[in-house]
Write a structure and sequence with these properties.
6-stranded antiparallel beta barrel, alpha+beta, globular
Length: 128
Amino acid sequence: YRATGGRLTCTLGTVVTAPLVTTGARSGRPREAQVTYFHDGPDDPIVVASNYGGPKHPQWYYNLIAHPECELGGERFTAGEITDPDEYARLFALAEQVYAGWRDYRAMTTAVGRRIPVFRLESRAGAT
């Protein structure tokens, strides 16, 4: 992504990744993590805070909770965690179609009592 100046995202098979830039929950400083995402409809990227099925949420989860304004692939968004159970189930089912590994991650996190958060990123294009 950096090598092409943002013209190309990284594709791992059929899984697309891009840098997610958040504001540190405690530090207030920019933080960057490469994340996998997919789109729900034409505009809204969806990111899944799976942390590879680990027992804790990824750090960027806490950053988005504290500071929802973020960038994905150089575009500005506001993140909202999906809390509605039906919408969560629908989006996680889509996520599993995009990347089957999320099914395994969910089984791993369920075993330790963690629910994998899902975020919808809404465009802030033109926001100042």
